[in-house]
Amino acid sequence: MVMDLSRLFNTLQQQMYLKMQQQCIHAPTKGDITEEAWRVFFNEYLPKRYSCSKAFVVDCDGNISEQIDIVIYDEYFSPFIFNQDGFKYIPVESVYAVFEVKQNLSQEYFEYAQRKAMSVRQLRRTTAPVLCNGNLVSGREPPHIIAGILTTNRAWEDRLIQKTGLSDSLDFLDLGCCVNGKSWVWYENRYILSLEERDSLLTFFMTFIEKLRLLGTAPAMDIAQYFNGFGQL
């Protein structure tokens, strides 16, 4: 017996699309349903070293990002994640990726997702030495924070091919996915669209997993700077 991964993900993609299209009396807006569908997907299929939540991202100076629909973050090695009044606050050193969730892909929403990404990437990240094989090793340079946009319907994705940008800019979007369209990723100075709409979720997920693998483990954070920044030491 051979497992058809493409078929399994295509079924999941169809199920997600139907769920996102439903009007649910328990959710204030359709956007809430869409966001929750993506969070369930990430929490179900990402390796358990990664967590997914709607959250604000903070740094040691007390600066805070805009509220982010989906934050992919480390919860194994991060010493604290704040929960207060129903809101989650995640230290920026723990963040691997951020995504904005919208019903449709458009120029307006693309630029909105860029602003959200910038609000996270402009935060100050600390590093601290770690023990490795009994030796104290200097803290690693904070890695790139992946950013993107996730949508239900296609509307504008073909125009992504015409977009240009700087991959090292704070508002840069690395990749994204339309559940009822195609996925896309920045590759060699341009956006590449997935070949088949039926495989957009699988293509996006495999691409994202590889990007996470290349990031490695979240760097150690300098906890003392957080205490100093909030006036506790």
Report on this structure.
- The chain has 233 residues and is an alpha/beta fold.
- The protein has a domain at 5-47 and 94-124 and 141-215.
- It has five helices and eleven strands, in the order H-H-E-E-E-E-E-H-E-E-E-E-E-E-H-H.
- It has helices at residues 5-21, 30-45, 107-121, 200-215, 223-229, and strands spanning 50-58, 68-74, 82-84, 87-91, 95-104, 130-132, 135-137, 146-153, 175-180, 183-186, 191-193.
- It has a nine-stranded mixed β-sheet, sandwiched between helices.
Architecture blueprint of SSEs:
Layout: H1 5-21, H2 30-45, E1 50-58, E2 68-74, E3 82-84, E4 87-91, E5 95-104, H3 107-121, E6 130-132, E7 135-137, E8 146-153, E9 175-180, E10 183-186, E11 191-193, H4 200-215, H5 223-229
Parallel strand pairs: 1-4, 5-8, 8-9
Antiparallel strand pairs: 1-2, 2-5, 3-4, 6-7, 9-10, 10-11
Helix pairs in contact: 1-2
